[in-house]
Design the sequence.
């Protein structure tokens, strides 16, 4: 009986230490509504209890939607106040599927614990039928600032948001 309690106590302590190390870090994005041919920003938010110094995720836009691009043909992103010195890299992996990374060259952590970190403006074809369209955020990775300069990674759950065309 004593051995069983000791084993249970060790197992419980291990689980508590792992969950307290990982923290609660949640990625989300706002739902948007706009008319065919128009555009709207999708705001990516991070609620974090850990110190985060980089993010990466894959984004799947529905067919008929695209990023608003700059004069060089690159998708435009607006940095939130929480990551004002970060750099954003976006690579289209296949049609409508993008890998997006935001990081600081100086390993500066994301400021604060809640709010918008990144905004990306999306547009839809002028012939887009009305309806709800799903935007998928997958393979989300956060780079955490660890003790003794170790930088572990944490992977919050994949998530979705909706674009409504009216």
Sequence:
């Amino acid at each position: 009986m004593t051995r069983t309690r000791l084993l249970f106590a060790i197992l419980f302590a291990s689980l508590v230490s792992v969950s307290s190390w990982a923290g609660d870090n949640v990625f989300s994005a706002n739902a948007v509504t706009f008319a065919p041919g128009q555009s709207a920003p999708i705001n990516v938010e991070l609620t974090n209890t850990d110190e985060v110094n980089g993010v990466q995720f894959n984004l799947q836009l529905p067919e008929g939607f695209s990023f608003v691009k700059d004069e060089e043909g690159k998708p435009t992103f607006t940095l939130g106040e929480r990551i004002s010195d970060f750099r954003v890299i976006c690579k289209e992996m296949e049609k409508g599927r993008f890998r997006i990374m935001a990081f600081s060259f100086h390993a500066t952590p994301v400021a604060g614990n809640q709010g918008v970190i990144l905004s990306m403006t999306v547009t839809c074809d002028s012939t887009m039928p009305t309806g709800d369209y799903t935007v998928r955020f997958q393979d989300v990775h956060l780079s955490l600032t660890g003790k003794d300069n170790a930088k572990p990674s944490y992977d919050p759950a994949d998530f979705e948001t909706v674009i409504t065309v009216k």
Summary: The mean pLDDT is 82.
